[in-house]
Amino acid sequence: MLSIIEGVIDLLALGGSMVGIVTIGVAAALPELTAVMDAIRRRSPNVALGTLVGSNIVNPLVGIGLGGAISTYYVPSAVILWDLPFKLVTGAGLLGWTLYVNDGELTRTEGSYLLGLYFVFVVGRLLLFPGQ
Questions:
Q1: Sign (positive or negative) of CA dihedral 37, 43, 47, 50
Q2: What is the per-residue pLDDT across 101-130, written as a single tens digit (0 to 9) for each?
Q3: Can you supply a Gene Ontology BP term from the record (predicted)?
């Protein structure tokens, strides 16, 4: 699978971190999304939220931490200047909105906005950091 992804990177002249975010990132999130959807269907919103929050804490910290512990690696400027700030700002905004404006609720409309923000993230990344 990795050789196919490397071929796509060369073919489309995209950066490896961008392809990783879109393809591998989405594929890695599918098990968590499945667990969340199952928890929502079973009317267990706390399990759903715990899964989302937990995975968003564990995945980057453990992934980056293990990678750094095993070997030194280069972090592209796009990750530092766009990816991480975007995640921090949207996470803080979501937290503030959910806690202080909506009394702890996240509605379908707001969920749709979050999906839209994903596309804003991808398009912004492609426009601001082509080839990274």
A1: positive
A2: 888 788 888 889 989 999 999 899 888 988
A3: transmembrane transport
Same domain, 20 and 41: yes
Q: Is residue 10 predicted with pLDDT exceeding 70? A: no
Tell me the average pLDDT across 67-72: 84
User: Does residue 9 sit in the same domain as residue 38?
Assistant: yes
Question: Are residues 4 and 69 located together in one domain of the fold?
Answer: yes
Q: Which residue has the tokens 């599918």?
A: 30
d(CA 46, CA 76): 35
Kindly report, residue by residue over 35-45, the tens digit of the pLDDT: 988 998 998 88
Residue 11 confidence (pLDDT): 65
